[in-house]
Amino acid sequence: MRTRRPVASPLYPKISFACTEHPITVWAGAILLRLYVELIGLRAALAPLLVSFAKTSNNQIPAVDVLLAWWYGLALGAERFEHFTRYRRDPLLPRLLGLPRFPSPDTLRRFFQGFTYRHTTEVSEALIRFSLHAMRPILLGHTLDLDSTVFCRYGDQAGSLKGHNPVMRGRPSHHPLVAWLSERRRLLWATLRAGHAGTANGARECLAQALTMLPAGYRIGLVRADAGFFVTAFLAALEARDVPYIIVARLTPLLRKVVIYRMSETEWRPVARGIAVAEARATLPVWRGRTRRFVCLRQTLAERPEASGRRMLACPGYTYRVFVTTVPYAAELVTRMYAGRADSENRIKELKEDLSLDTCCLQSFDATDAAFRTGCVLYNLLMGFRETVLPSCWFERRLRAVRDLIFLVGADLIPEARRLRVRFAVPREERADFLTRLRTLFHGLPIAAQLDWNLAEATDASQPPAGPADLTVPALRFTPHAHGASP
Fold first, then answer.
1. pTM for this structure?
2. Does residue 382 sit in the same domain as residue 369?
3. In this structure, is residue 286 part of a structural domain?
4. Domain range for residue 91?
């Protein structure tokens, strides 16, 4: 009986499958991040901070390597502790990153469970100062944006309580408080709070701690915050430190009367189509006779139907937004200065969506706080990496783009006598940029004695277009026994 031959698909050519012994990774671009870590001397800075976390086991992974692996995993897209298994199974990635091996999820959990509140504060203070020391100052002072966010929880973790949760009402959560340097896009300080904490709870302490994080010679020129920080004690703390501020005021019944009766129609000044501003000085009963300046922004719904703000029954057809401020500039300039604070929402999205700090949670509150704050340090390190290695056009891109377009590079490893040859699958049109990033980082570093870059073919534009066999360069050669080389 004749066997019927299967019908070949017209869409695909004949494909031959085989196996290879060569270690292969898709995250070879992380070598750039490893070189940046070497460039800024991060490993040497971590060693004295993690002395108390040293282990005695013969099979131990040093605490410095565990923390570096935590940062590398977050930068490469890990969303939960269990996702670190994918990097642990990668045979080439630990060699590229200079790690003996990638820690398991349980190793990372035990590492953070060893943190107390004191350890977390000491380590995060030192690391944030380290991540800010190369930041350029601003002559007129930095703008500090205070904000809070919600990390939803799905278990009974410590501190996971019901509070303000606009996305999933009634769901237990944690309620972090963060302080950003707006112009440089750096996180100055962050702290984790229980889910039932109010927005302004601990705001004075957070402000005091954040100001101590500033490098010498730096100053805060303006503090911006939303209506959750419209608290008398916080306003008094800012004024006691002589820090200018613009804070959104809650439209309480008393403040509504100020807007209606103290800001007459003749005092409203149009600044754009459907937008007008006015100002007044007033006091509230809890201020004990202290008067402060209020600036009000009014938008006409007929001309701006999607205008944000609060509406008042006594003044239909308008939306209002009121600011309390100590800034002496004109009212329209005050509203424009505050408008830049909207960018802090994008920074929070990067923490939650790009670094997944809202999904890495442990049973202990101190352990979760340690994971969150060290993740915030990584945010500053990646901002420094972006400014040092990438062109200025990358300043507006999110960290997710850095991961997908810079770190996501295929490579394989081929043993050659006493060397290990790593071949990057970089498209020919992108090799010049890849070489530029490498040269920016590794010249003058101790690790340069261990790396041999064979990149002549990568920059030869006279060669014909790359075929499948040509996608193996540039090549990175590890010399295992180079004297004085880093691991």
1. 0.88
2. yes
3. no
4. 24-118+353-407
